[in-house]
Amino acid sequence: MKASEIRKLSAKELDAKLLELKDELFKLRFQQAINQLDNPMRISAVKKDIARILTIQRDIELHGTNS
Fold first, then answer.
1. If you ran DSSP here, which 8-state letter would residue 14 be given?
2. What is the C-alpha separation between 4 and 38, in angstroms, rounded?
3. Which domain holds residue 26?
4. CA-CA distance, 45 to 49, in Å (whole number)?
5. What pLDDT, in 10s, does the model give residues 33-63?
6. Residue 59: predicted pLDDT
7. How far is residue 33 from each of residues 4, 36, 37, 40, measured CA to CA in Å?
8. How far apart, in whole angstroms, are the C-alpha atoms of residue 59 and residue 39?
9. What per-residue confidence (pLDDT) applies to 31?
10. Residues in CB range of 49: below 8 A, 6 or more apart
11. What is the DSSP string of 22-61?
12. Radius of gyration from C-alpha coordinates of the chain
């Protein structure tokens, strides 16, 4: 998910997407622990998406929705 796509989401949508990604990361880590993970690169992609959402939420908190 690109940062420009994330910036178009509302605050509630950002929270929902963040919860969804955290749940997916948990499931991926569980699959990795029992050696059933098909694509290990997906873990890093989900972590980066989580970081992007948290960064944009912080940017909105500091500068408002105009940034």
1. H
2. 29
3. 3-63
4. 6
5. 999 999 999 999 999 999 999 999 999 999 9
6. 93
7. 33, 8, 8, 11
8. 31
9. 95
10. 1, 21
11. HHHHHHHHHHHHTT--S-THHHHHHHHHHHHHHHHHHHHH
12. 14
Domain tally, the chain: 1
Question: 40 Cβ partners below 8 Å, 6+ apart?
Answer: 32
The CA distance from 7 to 64, in Å, is 12
Give the CATH number for residue 34.
Answer: 1.10.287.310
Owner of token pair 């994330």: 6
pLDDT of amino acid 66: 59
